Amino acid sequence: NQDPNGDPRSYELYDPAKHNYNYNLLLNAVSPIKRVGLSGFGQFDLTENTRLFTELMATNRQSNQRASPNTLGVYRTIRIAATNPTNPTGQNLTLERRRLEEAGARITEQEVDTFRTVLGLEGQWGDNWAWNVAMNWGRNSATDSSTNIANLDRVENTLNTSLCSNTPGAAIPCGNYLGYGNLTPEVLDYILFTQRGSGGNSQQGFSGTISGALFDLPAGSVAFASGVEFRKERGWLYPDPLVVNGSANIVRQDPIEGEYSAKEAFVEFAVPLLQDVPLVDYATLNLAGRYSDYDLFGSDTNYKVGLDWQVAEPLKIRLNYATAFRIPSIPELFGGIGQGSLTTLDPCSNWSTLPADSVIRANCQAAGVPTNFRQLGNTILTTTGGNPDLKPEDARTFTAGFVWTPGFAPGLTLT
């Protein structure tokens, strides 16, 4: 680490208190954002009991953020040969970290367009029945960009004396990364680029429902609802080619693209059991079932049984038992391998300075961690990705609860 107030050829050991970077100097307290939205709703009575309806929503969001300058040494080891003229040590060097302060802040921009439309019919049969059929289509698409990102292949070129040249106007200028201010505008123009990526998701669907009262029981009418649904979902992510091949000095990311379709049918009943008897203002049994058929996972049937019991005016008890079925999302299934940064602190950093009876000290020593080990920074590189072999998750749940509205405290409700 170079002392900016001393000899530019002088370097000293890393000291977190002295050399850690202040990220806040270049950041905005509030990042700018611009959002434009349009929505519309319409309906038209075709007959006395049939209505045409439509919905339309569109939004555009533009935002940007400032980020600290790009840092070399995080995603690829940067080596400076002993024979490189910029290396004053006469030994091969590994550049642990080098923040490209000369380039200034990175500017990250996003633009997101969202569109959704619905067209349907709804109506009534008699006094107790209602129906609804609708089609919907929605799409969310986004582009993003980040300036002042280093191309690591080109960084290596500027350190390869057989490729680079200090001649003005050279196609590959030689770079001096040892010391702030040593990177020339020519080197920065050569190694930096603006990464651009895009992504989004879309959904198409059709649904139809019918609901009403089947018949009467002593405690009230048996309510019924049923319906069918079809939907198709697609998702995609196309990173910058230099991000995909690992040349960009940011987290690497594979493209994502996948889709699935589903057909579902459901039925629900609300059966009144008791009403206005001792300890029961009313009690309703709720029954529901759903059949799902996915093109990627096959079919599954789930159900729910519940009880709503109004004991008296202030107290209601709820009981539910249900099964559930969850399929993996498109990124979970089709997401390629990508990198990430996990913020964490290594407990073995500076372990030799801990008290002799410290358990952490004993564990780090037993693990063979060097006595002079220090964590550089507070983030580590992680690797994540999707898995096309993932299967749906099944669950069984039981919930019990109550709602209490005491008369002695108007406005108070406890659940």
From TrEMBL:
GO terms for cellular component: cell outer membrane. Its main location: membrane. It holds the Pfam family TonB_dep_Rec_b-barrel. InterPro entries: Beta-barrel_TonB, Beta-barrel_TonB_sf. Keywords: Cell outer membrane, Membrane, Receptor. It is found in: Cell outer membrane. Residues 80-408 form the TonB-dependent receptor-like beta-barrel domain. SUPFAM superfamilies: Porins (SSF56935). This is TonB-dependent receptor.
